Amino acid sequence: MKTIGLIGGMSWESSKVYYQHINEMVREKLGGSHSAKSLLSSVDFDEIERYSFSSNWDQIGNIMALHAKTLEKAGSDLVILCTNTIHLVSDAITDATNVPFLHIANATGEAIAKTGIKKVALLGTKFTMEKDFYTKILKEEYGLEILVPNNEDMDILHSIIYDELVKGIFKPESKEVCLGIIKKLEAEGAEGVILGCTELPLLIADNEVATPTFDTTKIHAQKAVDFALS
């Protein structure tokens, strides 16, 4: 079994779910008392949040590269970034390390491609929805058409994520708002929904959405486990 290196803390609310998924998946695959070999290097999210809001992505890249190198030196055989948004600086990780890096958009694109769905809604932070570091991979490598919310709904989602979800606050009324945004995108032709923020699956369950949902946390964790056990 290979050792999975996780860069976590963005936020720790979802990082703990990564850890849970990875160990459950290994136990399911190998049985008995098996669990995953893993290393976690976790950031102070307040620092990352401040740099994000000031668009200081170079500094975030430096921080991610440092954590990735720490994991590599400690013995990780691969590295994953336990967040969607900060994949914006994934090049900083791949440039700084020699071990494989598993990009969350590639894992998600592969999962969607297996279903035959072609038109999918993307929910996440404004950075994830507006910038092309994520959607470009989905479009160019997997042939997907991506729908995102209108500007007003983007702002609402962004606020829910940063003011509530990353702080461990999960309000029923916020869930209803998110479900309402999803319904609008379904009316525009979305055949499925990417929960492109690792905290969103903690708020919205699969059975609460009419179309298939793609839990990026679980998809990414499964890809890491598949690699570790290959």
TrEMBL record:
GO terms for molecular function: amino-acid racemase activity. Keywords: Isomerase. It comes from the Bacteria. InterPro entries: Asp/Glu/hydantoin_racemase, Asp/Glu_race, Asp/Glu_racemase_AS_2, Asp_race. Pfam families: Asp_Glu_race. Belongs to the aspartate/glutamate racemases family. This is Aspartate racemase. It comes from Flagellimonas aquimarina.
